[in-house]
Design brief:
mainly alpha, Arc Repressor Mutant, subunit A, 2 domains, three-stranded antiparallel sheet, 9 helices, 3 strands, transcription, GntR_C, Tscrpt_reg_HTH_GntR, DNA binding
Length: 228
């Protein structure tokens, strides 16, 4: 295994290595991680590994164990519903506030993202579609101009990506589930278009209502994926 480059921010590099392996499915939910083992694998001391794992605990990805070490968070319906209720509250308000200053240039940016998601889905590149979907939602939060909304969103963004990627990895392992996931993604992207249309018309209440419905349907879809 390639060791991270030496620097004063070694723990951040280790954090990215571990995070990448979780997203790729190489480290799975409920898997136990020990700093001593990963220090040996990466050829570094235990200190930066502990710091990296502590950061991942703060992000909600790792759960500390009484016997030492950490466990990768499991994906449960209750956790997902709680997380998406938080996301929905933030994104509904962001849509409402974004309408106040949503000009043609901004609309063009979001329309471009929607088209890029469509093209990724046409190529059956669900990983890229998921990344672009994240860009869409994060950029919409930014467009609200509310730095507090953005700050709150950033605290749950990584955990959201963890859930979405874990469920996508499961879906990709089964042809029928992958097709279902892709169809839901296409439907969600149509909902994106309706949200942007409302924002272009500067109808904040309509955009907020559409976003609330969008988040509810996304939660229902992911719950179905968990239950399979």
């Amino acid at each position: 295994m390639d060791a991270p480059a030496r620097s004063s921010h070694l723990f951040e590099q280790i954090h990215e290595i571990l995070w990448g392996k979780i997203l790729q499915g190489e480290i799975e939910p409920t898997q136990r991680l020990k700093d001593v083992e990963w220090a040996a694998k990466l050829g570094v001391s235990r200190t930066p590994v502990r710091e990296a794992m502590r950061k991942m605990q703060q992000e909600g990805i790792l759960i500390p164990l009484n016997q030492g070490g950490y466990e990768v968070r499991s994906v449960t319906m209750t956790d997902l519903q709680d997380l998406y209720r938080c996301r929905s509250a933030l994104e509904v308000q962001a849509a409402r506030e974004a309408a106040e200053h949503f000009g043609p240039k901004v609309a063009k940016h979001f329309t471009g993202l929607i088209r890029m998601i469509d093209r990724a889905l046409e190529r059956k590149d669900l990983d890229l579609a998921l990344a672009l979907n994240g860009d869409f939602h994060r950029d919409l939060i930014k467009q609200s101009g509310n730095v507090h909304l953005l700050g709150l969103y950033e605290t749950i963004r990584k955990l959201t990506l963890f859930y979405r990627t874990t469920l996508l990895n499961r879906a990709k392992a089964d042809t029928d589930r992958k097709k279902t996931y892709a169809r839901r993604f296409m439907a969600g992207n149509k909902e994106h278009r309706a949200i942007i249309k409302a924002l272009t018309e500067q109808d904040g209440e309509k955009a907020a209502s559409l976003m609330q419905s969008h988040m509810l349907r996304a939660t229902e879809h992911l719950n179905q994926e968990i239950s399979k």
